Amino acid sequence: MLLVxxxxxxxxxxxxxxQSEIWPAIHxxxxxxxxxxxxxKITDIFVSRLLARVDLKHATLKYRALDFSxxxxxxxxxxxxxxxxxxxxxxxxxxxxxxxECDFGRxxxxxxxxxxxxxxxxxxxxxxxxxxxxxxxxxxxxVRLGDWSCADICVNNRYYGDxxxxxxxxxxxxxxxxxxxxxxxxxxxxxxxxxxxP
Length: 198
What we know:
F-box_SCFL_complex_component
């Protein structure tokens, strides 16, 4: 296991941020990053044939795509209190995904593509709720959206199709669905069974 902890020291923070560039080439089955008060910026994605689990806490992720295709053994991804400002999260092998108390971007809607996912826990604190691709193996989903700061509902009350209003935080970038983008996707695929919906 590779464990990175950040302490309340500006110099240590600077050094750890500089060293983060070498983290992607990991020769371990588990990678944990835990910071307390300063968010570390991870500038590249991981590459490892062995990596099976990634735990991130208080990290800032800024990519066009968080693509784990170069981590074929990855089965579990846990993110807690992170800034997830990515367009896509992609993994063909991921089975368990937990994104808790995270802030998503406000200008684009993150698309999650993990076709082998069996378990999803998603608590969106703020930003635009992500859009889910097909997850035919999904057995359990525990989903909670933040209050007014989480943009997932059409403000113009158009429940079918994009309302066309470029200022609508719920519809913009949702690719044709103006209702609850995240929850509707779950219900369409699996109905209400086995899902904890708010």
